[in-house]
């Protein structure tokens, strides 16, 4: 019967002392602040996108190495932060993809305009002459 209490004590969730819980939550709060900072900046100019992605990766790695024991609140906070990181990262990647498509489309349009201009060198002069006659 002496083994029964040991099994019951082992299977029951262990309560962390308040100071240990605070010690676990401080790094989570610090990392949450870094995620919030990136989320706030991520709507800005995309020249910083790689830096944002790098910061999110660093925070994710730090979250993976945090020792949280069996504290469910701390573990849930970590899962929530990892989810926010995934969402922020996906949003940044989507903006980069959208910008790439826009730049590609614009580049093709410019190439087409230049091709037409080179194919019809006298056309601009003809249009200017017509405009000149209409305006006089």
Describe this structure in words.
The protein is mainly alpha-helical. The protein is 82% helix and 0% strand. The chain starts with a helix and ends with a helix. The N terminus is likely disordered.
Give a summary of the structure in a few sentences.
The protein is rod-shaped and about 85 Å long. Helix content is 82%, strand content 0%. It has helices spanning 3-11, 18-41, 49-65, 72-119, 123-135.
Helix content percent band = over 70%
The DSSP helix count reads 5
> Beta-strand percentage?
under 5%
Q: Structural class of the helix and strand makeup?
A: mainly alpha
SS elements, strand count: 0
* Rg computed from alpha carbons, rounded to a whole number of angstroms: 30 Å
Sheet with the most strands? none
Question: What is the 3D shape?
Answer: rod-shaped
State mean pLDDT (0 to 100 scale): 81
Key descriptive features of the protein:
single chain, 136 residues, 82% helix, mainly alpha
Give the SSE map.
Blueprint (H helix, E strand, L loop, with lengths): L2 H9 L6 H24 L7 H17 L6 H48 L3 H13 L1
Helix pairs in contact: 2-3, 2-4, 3-4
